[in-house]
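Progress against Task 2.4 (sequence-to-structure conversion) is shown through the following example record, which the project officer requested during the mid-term review.
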Amino acid sequence: MLKRYLIAASITLIVATPLQADVLSISEPTYNTPNSASGVLRPTRGMTMQQVEQKFGKAEQQYAPKGTPAITRWQYSKFDVYFENQLVIHSVVHRQAEK
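Structure tokens generated for the chain above:
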């Protein structure tokens, strides 16, 4: 009988306890550089290695593929391009030093 009261009291406390959470609000992140003439024009997802080289020229540095599936990185002066096998999966603009 005491066990039932303890269980009922525990359930009541759990239900009655308010839930709390922290909220993080970012109004406008500054790390989002537009892929346009006013930002930094760079390869888009789905382009092939050949298309990237034709449009942006030879990369300053090409890193060897790693992992499965093979992920390759090409480094240009203003951005890096990541490929899965032969297709672009992401391009990242280099962060500029804060003044």
